[in-house]
Structures are given as structure tokens and as C-alpha cells.
TrEMBL record:
It comes from the Eukaryota. This is Cyclopropane-fatty-acyl-phospholipid synthase. Pfam families: CMAS. GO terms for molecular function: methyltransferase activity. Residues 65-84, 224-272 are annotated as: Disordered. It comes from Gymnopilus dilepis.
Length: 559
């Protein structure tokens, strides 16, 4: 069955959404001064519950300080404040800030930041303060918010991931521009959590160089170097590469196709730390797959990847294992084009095939054909309603004996499971990832068991979530530094191309305000997720699973 096109932009739900957004945006922008004052009073009353850290909000006529300074306690503020070093400052530019925050809680704050209604000296520290005080601030979602979010709830079925909508949701994020993503990713073009030798060595370097940037000074903790035990000695050559930490030279020598991107953070260094960390992660996943040696019959090993990205993992597997044939599927047209170019440049297009396809539309001849299955940070886009179906499809595609799979997935702790289904009006990152779901590990495993009817079992689980904080900082540095020279021009080119494809005439370009909104949205996303990863409010699990009774897999606890 052909993949249906995404819902046209002039659908009923689209019109309803646009009309309501126009009304609320007008209300926010005009301020409605009496309402703004009421909203300010309501927000201030809630923020008075802050007891950890310090938040100052500057308006044209007042400075709000939370918690309020205690008379006579200036000499030792830590007596009543366990984290006095956490300090952040907000400057209110437009009274719409108060209305947004009162009406939509944390999503309202995200929009206020994106649209320039408020400025912040340090988003990372601000989010730490909010997290430290989240129990006290739980009443931010007031009854007023229902008035503003009800129409979105009515029309939010557009985020239910029907097959057509899945492609629409993926395209909303990944079809922005390949050049835009290349502006902040490392040269391997891997857009997922990396594995570094330490968690925050970049912050030490930043402190030493006094290169303070928005949000970066908020984290000062130091982690010891990650030392994985060496693989046990063997008298025979191992079919699986060692999982001990490889040097940058060894990593780059082993991946000639995944060259580093040049730029201010890597051009003068012997290696790009982000590139090295991404290759380390890819190799870790490859090791977990335990790809078998060539068969005596000469039949190729077949591997299925759901979520191609820009082809980094498929290319690396094909380079290391010439006897493996790879089918990789994506819903992003832009990613497919660049991935195929990268694959062809390495002479691997006879062994890697990229399909523009929904995972639920795989051809019938793929049933039971794949010895290995892999998916990196794609499952978050599946949606609550289809997670069991995802595992049902994985079980359907994998060989009935000896098959192995590895999935990497962003997760949240079980303690927050009552609110882990992200929809369009209760999650800050929904503006970046429409239709998303962040599961708990427990839910992920339960869905695997239910979807496969117990025919897939979990072999091992690793949490690399704390490494995401540094990954996000690396992306943010590049994004901010290259915004004017790489990212903004890429957005303008994409805008021009889409206008031409739509048959629109003229030389209209994105104005400065539109570019700044885009920039602030991504900075907000980077900082928000960084703090979530640092505080383990977000996790990132690599789960290996297989058929029952797979004796050939072995048991190497150091992988």
C-alpha cells in the first residue's frame, strides 16, 4: 500500500488551529493590560513558593525576587536555601509573558521565550531551579489554562500517528533542511545521544577559557573518566570488535566515510570530540548486535534499520561487515536524499537500500527475513497508540530463530509515568517533535512483550542518558556559533525552494524576527533537554533483545 500524503495544510483541523492561534496570539500581543496584571499577580503568587535557588524577574516597574530575601540572613543564605549558587534572571519585554505563563504554564513560558516576550541570562540554571522546586510549582497549570488549550485538545487528533500523519510529523522536524542539521551535527551526521569518555569535560575547558555562553555556566559537576573493562583475552580472533574505549585515531581510521565537519570547534583540533563520541556510540550498538560471520552457503546476513537518519549507522555496519545487506527505512524525504548520496559516495549502494516507507507498510516478502534489527531514537515518534504495533512489526520482520535487535530510546523515569505521554499542549519539546512519546523503560519492555506476544525477550539494557547533556551542549555551541554563517542561509534556501515548489512568485525571504524565533526555539530545546538529562529527568536506554534460546549470542558483560 502506498504511503498516504500528509494532511493538506488547509484541512479543517488546520483551519481551526490557525484561527484559534490567531485569536490567542492577538490577545497575548495586545497584552490586555488588566488581564496581564491579574496574570502577573497569579504567577507571582505561585513563584513565591520557590525555596531552592534564586530567581529574579525584572519588569519595567518592579523587581520580583524568589525566594524573597530574609531580613538578617544575608550573611548565611544557605541556612534556608540549600542551593544558593543557582541564580537566574528574567527580563520581561512584553506583558504577554504573564498571560502566556498563566494560561499555558511551562508551554506558555516556552512560547514567551521563543517570541521574545521574555529574556533569560541563563536558561540551564533557570530550568534547574524549576526542577528543584517542581513540587512547589505544580500548581502553575491553573484553571485559566483550560480556556486557552481546549480548542487545541479538540483538534489534537492531528497528532494521532495515523500512517499519513506519521510522515507529516517526521517531516515537520527532519525535513527542515539537511544543511541546517549539518550546521550543528558532527561530520558523521548522527542525531542522537553520543557516548563521551567523561560527562562534562567540555565545561572544564569552557571555564578555563572563560568562554561563557548562555546556559553553559550552569553546570559545574565533574565526572570521572569512563573506563570500560577490557574484553577478556582470547586465543582466537574475535568476530566482534572490542568495546574498550578506542582512541580518536583508531575510531577515525575505522570509519573513512564519516569524516569530521570543519568549524570553530574542531578545525584546529586533532579530533572533534563530538564526532569521536558519536562513533563510539555507533560502535557500541554494532557490538551489541553481534553480527555473525559469513555463512558457509554464502547467503548474506540481512539487517533492517527503522529510522535511517543520514545513514551513519548503516554505512558503518556495511564497511565492517561486507556480507551484510541492509534495508533502512525513513519517513523524511530530505534525509533519504542525503543518505543515498553518502552511501553512493562510499560505493555501498549495492548493499544498502534506503526506503521512503512507514514501518507499518513493509512489503510482505520481508516477513521473517532479517537476522538483525536496529533502531536509534526513532521509537519516540511512534506514538502511544502504536507502540505495541511497532514491536509486533519488529517480531514479524525478524527471523524466527537466532534474531537479535537493538533499540536506543529516550525515556523518562517511572516516577513520572502518570504524565509521560507527550501531546501538543503539555510538553515543551512538542514544538520540535510533534506527535511524540517518551516512554518509561518499564512501559517500553511491557509493549515489547505484548506486541511480540512474548516471542522477543530482553537481553540487556544500558542507560547512556547522562551523556545526552554534553551531546546537547556540543550541538548548541555549534548551532549558536554557526547560525549566521550556515544555519540561517540554509533556512533561507529551504524557504526559497518551498516557495518555488508551491508555484509562488516573488523574492520574499524569512525576516529577522522569523529567524530569531527559530533560533530561540532550538536554544530552548537544547537547554531544556540538557537539564533533563543532567538531572536524570530524562534517560536514554539502549535495549538489546532477541529470540528465546539464542545460544550463539554469548554473554559478554563488558559490552
Amino acid at each position: 500500500m502506498d504511503l498516504p500524503d500528509a494532511k493538506p495544510p488547509f484541512s479543517f483541523s488546520g483551519l481551526a488551529d490557525k484561527a484559534w492561534n490567531r485569536v490567542t496570539e492577538t490577545a497575548f500581543r495586545t497584552g490586555w493590560t488588566p488581564i496581564a496584571r491579574l496574570a502577573e499577580a497569579a504567577v507571582v503568587s505561585v513563584l513565591r513558593k520557590i525555596t531552592i535557588g534564586q530567581l529574579q524577574i525584572l519588569t519595567r516597574s518592579h523587581i520580583h525576587t524568589f525566594p524573597s530575601p530574609e531580613p538578617g540572613n544575608d550573611a548565611n543564605p544557605s541556612r534556608s536555601n540549600p542551593r544558593p549558587e543557582l541564580k537566574a534572571e528574567l527580563r520581561v519585554v512584553n506583558d504577554a509573558f504573564w498571560v502566556r505563563l498563566c494560561a499555558m504554564g511551562d508551554l506558555g513560558f516556552a512560547e514567551a521565550y521563543m517570541y521574545g516576550d521574555v529574556e533569560c541570562d541563563d536558561l540551564v540554571t533557570l530550568f534547574q531551579i524549576f526542577l528543584e522546586n517542581r513540587e512547589n510549582l505544580s500548581n502553575m497549570d491553573s484553571s485559566i489554562s483550560f480556556l486557552f488549550t481546549l480548542p487545541q485538545k479538540i483538534t489534537s487528533y492531528r497528532f494521532l500517528n495515523t500512517i499519513g500523519n506519521s510522515r507529516s510529523n517526521i517531516s515537520a522536524h527532519y525535513d527542515i533542511s539537511n544543511d541546517m542539521f549539518a550546521g550543528f551535527l558532527s561530520g558523521d551526521m548522527t542525531y542522537s545521544c553520543a557516548i563521551f569518555p567523561d560527562l562534562d569535560g567540555d565545561l572544564v575547558e569552557e571555564k578555563d577559557s572563560q568562554n561563557i555562553w548562555n546556559g553553559g555556566q550552569g553546570l559545574k559537576r565533574l565526572a570521572s573518566k569512563l573506563q570500560l573493562p577490557p574484553s577478556p583475552p582470547s586465543s582466537e580472533p574475535s568476530e566482534t570488535p572490542s568495546e574498550s574505549i578506542a582512541t580518536p585515531a583508531e575510531i577515525n581510521e575505522h570509519s573513512p566515510s564519516l569524516q569530521r565537519v570543519t568549524g570553530p570547534y574542531d578545525s584546529s583540533l586533532p579530533e572533534d570530540p563530538l564526532h569521536t563520541a558519536q562513533i563510539r556510540k555507533l560502535q557500541h550498538i554494532i557490538n551489541k548486535l553481534h553480527i555473525p560471520p559469513p555463512s558457509a552457503s554464502g547467503e548474506p546476513i540481512r539487517l533492517l534499520e527503522i529510522g535511517t537518519g543520514w545513514g551513519a549507522l548503516a554505512i558503518r555496519i556495511a564497511q565492517q561487515y561486507p556480507h551484510v545487506l541492509i534495508d533502512t527505512i525513513t519517513l523524511s524525504s530530505a534525509q533519504k536524499v542525503l543518505a543515498e548520496q553518502r552511501i553512493a559516495a562510499e560505493g555501498l549502494d549495492d548493499r544498502i537500500t534506503v526506503h521512503l516507507m512507514d514501518y507499518r507498510n513493509m512489503p510482505s516478502e520481508w516477513k521473517g527475513r532479517f537476522a538483525r534489527f536496529v533502531s536509534i531514537e526513532m521509537i519516540e515518534a511512534v506514538g502511544k497508540e502504536f507502540l505495541e504495533r511497532y514491536w509486533e512489526v519488529a517480531d514479524w520482520a525478524m527471523e524466527k530463530k537466532g534474531a537479535v535487535g537493538v533499540v536506543q530510546c529516550i525515556t523518562i523515569p517511572e516516577a513520572r509515568s502518570s504524565s509521560f505521554f507527550l501531546d501538543d499542549d503539555n510538553a515543551n519539546d512538542i514544538a520540535v517533535f510533534p506527535g511524540g512519546l517518551l516512554p518509561t523503560l518499564t512501559f517500553l519492555i511491557s509493549a515489547l512483550t505484548a506486541g511480540s506476544k512474548g516471542k522477543l525477550i530482553v537481553e540487556s539494557v544500558d542507560n547512556i542518558g547522562p551523556h545526552y547533556a554534553r551531546t546537547l551542549r556540543e550541538w548548541r555551541r555549534r548551532f549558536v556559533d554557526r547560525f549566521e554563517t550556515v544555519i540561517a542561509p540554509a533556512l533561507q534556501n529551504e524557504f526559497k525552494t518551498r516557495r518555488e515548489q508551491a508555484g509562488l512568485k516573488g523574492t520574499k525571504i524569512l525576516d529577522r524576527e522569523e529567524l530569531e524565533v527559530f533560533k530561540r526555539k532550538w536554544i530552548y530545546y537544547y537547554c531544556y533537554c540538557e537539564v533533563g538529562s543532567t538531572t536524570r529527568t530524562l534517560g536514554d536506554h539502549i535495549m538489546t533483545f532477541m529470540r528465546e534460546g539464542n545460544q550463539s549470542y554469548g554473554c559478554n558483560v563488558y559490552e
